Each structure stands twice: as structure tokens, then as C-alpha cells.
Amino acid sequence: MGPKDIVRRAIACGLDIIAITDHNSAENVKAVKEMAHGENLLVIPGMEVYTREEAHMICLFETIESVTQFQNIIYDHLAEGENDPDWYGPQYIVDGAEHILGENPRLLGMPTNLHVQEVADFVIDLDGIIFPAHIDRKANSLLHALGFIPTDLPFYALEIARPYEEAVQLHRFLKNSSLSIIRSSDAHRIEDIGSKATWYYMEKPTFAEVKKAIMQQEGRRACLVKEQEAGNE
């Protein structure tokens, strides 16, 4: 799944915004942004961090520079050892023209030694935004790992994997949550891109506006259903 395929698929699906959130690394974010240059597609730099609690956290940033700083922090807290390409598969690093620049030797699929609070602190220091990924799953869910969603962490959103009504049946608190509830494709295959999406109501497609929408600021908001389709309920 290379940068060209990702951008083409996103555009074909009618997406305006995507985030690149590989596990514990942001090496290929720049390549996707370069491939999307000149297209009506905002590519948000990000990372899906695997915490000490064995939970996945989505971390989003405005710039390549910010996510690279964050990546360097995460790299200092990865499990020791090197990736085995024969077992886990190669971890290619590519450029905007899809030339292979090398392989990432790190154990990206393993938990870091950072707690959620520590990851959140680093993200906020870099003016990013953080929220728990796929909380309605058993695997790598903060809710499953802790049994609750901490209220003292700087979360403004919760990501769910299931359709909203199914997720609410499992976790009733979602219905009355003051946090934004969002869905993302979490695509590991090209055909999964666009399979789930969130509608963002904001002035223009920028990271700053997405952040405001997630934080429900200045009238911006994130919705799981396009409002006219929901009958403005």
C-alpha cells in the first residue's frame, strides 16, 4: 500500500481529509503528503502509538516537523531489538515518488514503555491532539485495558470501530459522552480506505480546523452522519 495508491483511493472515495497513522512511526507521512500535493486532499501527519498499557492512541499533528519530533521521542521508548522481516514483514521507508529509501529496523509493532499520560504530555507539548483508538474493540483498546476512560487526560474524542448504535449497545456511556465520537477506516489494506469516515463541519480543510472540530470549538464539530442525512436530529 504505497503513497500513490493511498492518495488515489482516498480521492476516489470522495475523502477530503486523511491522516497517516502508522504504528509507532511517521517515516512515510512525508511521502503521502508529497503525493497529495496539488490535490484537494488534506493529509494530516500522525502516529498510532502503542502504549505500555497495550492500548493504541491516535496522535495527530499540524506539521511534518512536529510529528518527526514526536517520532524521535517514541523511538527512544521502543522495545529493544530489531524487526524480523521474514516474520513480521518488511517495514519500507519510501519517498514521494515511491522509491524505497530503506527499511525501518525497529520493532514498531511492539508496545512502547510509555504510559498513556506520558504520550499525551508529549503530544500536547507539540500542539497536537490525542485520543484513544477503537475503544469498542477488545484488542489494544484503552477501555478494555483499563476498564474505563480516564477523565483527567486531554482527550476530546473517542474513536469507535463499530457502527455507532452497535458501539452504544456495548458501551452505554457513549450515548451521553461529551467527547466527539468519530470513526476512521484504520486501513491496513488499500480497499479499506474510505470504509468508515467522519463528517467535519468547519470553515476549511486545515489541521487547525479539524482540531477545533474535534474539540467542539467555535461552532465546529465532528459527526458520524452527514447532518442532512440524519434529518438534523
Give descriptors for this structure:
233 residues; alpha/beta; TIM Barrel; 4-stranded mixed beta sheet; 8 helices; 27% helix
Per CATH, the superfamily is Metal-dependent hydrolases
Poorly predicted parts: none
Question: How many H/I helical runs?
Answer: 8
Q: Could you tell me the mean pLDDT?
A: 94
Strand order of the largest sheet: 1-2-3-6
Looking at the structure, the CATH topology is TIM Barrel
Which CATH architecture? Alpha-Beta Barrel
The first-level CATH class name: Alpha Beta
- Euclidean distance between termini CA atoms: 38 Å
Morphology call: globular
- Summarize the helix and strand pattern as letters: HEHEEHHEEHEHEHEEHE
- Overall structural class, as computed from helix and strand content, comes to alpha/beta
Strand content: 15-25%
How many domain modules?
1
The percent range for helix content is 25-40%
| CA gyration radius, whole angstroms | 17 Å
Q: What is the number of strand segments?
A: 10
For the sheet with most strands, the description reads:
4 strands, mixed
